[in-house]
Amino acid sequence: MELYTPLHAGFMKYCRGLTGNREDALDLAGETMLISFGNFEKLRNRDSFKAYLYGVARRLRLHHFRRIRFRGVFDENLAEMMIDQGSLPDSDYDVQVIFGLLDRLPSKQREAFILFEISGFSLKEIRELQGGTLSGVKMRLQRAREQLRHWLEPSVNTVGTHNRVQSDLGKEQH
């Protein structure tokens, strides 16, 4: 403390000048003191304590400015206007249904379908991964699509049939 006491007033003014207000200056000075006295035994020359102390404060403030660049101010009105990038509530169910149906496909067909339709692999890349011929990969994809369409059509036709029946019933009543 004997090294710091004569520097205190000037050091506090320096911290106040760096931060612009009293509270932040006290925080900066406190953090600087913790670091400075924590590493005091590493200081080789006691005459350079002043430069060391001011240097620590300067680096802490620069570090603070670097971190503050990544912070933002929350604006509730702006947040409400942002478009939700998440999925729609009903699409989660659709995804579960699709993946459930994919699990029912034979493994080679499922793998080919996922690689091509979901992961974006080319037919040639799938052939290299799965082996076989290019026409074999095309056939696996075609069969997977047909099977999925077959499993999904009853639910699509049911809705379409229901709407047609309702429409026909409405015509009969008039």
Describe the structure.
The protein is an all-alpha fold. It is 75% helix and 0% strand. The chain has 8 helices and no strands. It is elongated and about 85 Å long.
Quick structural gist:
Helix content is 75%, strand content 0%. The chain is mostly helical and 174 residues long.
What descriptors fit this protein?
174 residues, mainly alpha, Rna Polymerase Sigma Factor, Chain: A, Arc Repressor Mutant, subunit A, 2 domains, elongated
Question: How would the blueprint of this fold be written?
Answer:
Layout: H1 8-19, H2 22-38, H3 49-68, H4 76-81, H5 89-104, H6 107-118, H7 123-130, H8 134-173
Helix pairs in contact: 1-2, 1-3, 2-3, 6-8, 7-8
What count of helical segments does DSSP give?
Answer: 8
The CATH topology of the largest domain turns out to be Rna Polymerase Sigma Factor, Chain: A
β content, as a range? under 5%
How confident overall, as mean pLDDT? 80
User: Judging from the principal axes of the Cα atoms, what is the shape?
Assistant: elongated
The percent of residues in helical segments reads: over 70%
Question: Ends: how far apart?
Answer: 99 Å
State the total count of DSSP E strands. 0
CATH class bucket of the largest domain: Mainly Alpha
Main sheet properties: none
Low-confidence stretches: 158-174
CATH-level-2 architecture of the largest domain? Orthogonal Bundle
